[in-house]
Amino acid sequence: MPNNTDANIATADVLTLLLHNQHALAAAIEEVASWVRANGSPEVHDNAITALATLDKNASAITAGILKLRQ
């Protein structure tokens, strides 16, 4: 498969923007989770924390893919 540098750069740029969106969503979920915990719903808080862990794990994989595309 030929190396298409322009396509790789464009793909990496788009993935970077999606990663930034993912970080913003994670921050919002964290704020809501804190509010939920403070208002007495620990089960919902735990579910939100689980979702945050998934976002973190996937963010690491996305970052690795972006770095590979930018090589």
Task: Give a short summary of the structure.
By secondary structure, the protein is mainly alpha-helical.
Characterization of this structure:
- The structure is a single chain.
- The protein is mainly alpha-helical and 71 residues long.
- It is built from two helices and no strands.
- The protein has one domain (5-69).
- It is 87% helix and 0% strand.
- The protein is elongated and about 55 Å long.
- The two termini are 16 Å apart.
- The model has no long low-confidence stretch (mean pLDDT 93).
Low-confidence stretches: none
Q: Which percent band covers the strand fraction?
A: under 5%
Radius of gyration in whole Å, from Cα? 16 Å
The coarse overall form would be elongated
The number of strands is 0
Succession of helices and strands? HH
Average pLDDT, rounded to a whole number, is 93
Note the total helix count: 2
Secondary structure category: mainly alpha
Largest sheet, in brief, is: none
What's the helical proportion of residues? over 70%
Distance between the termini: 16 Å
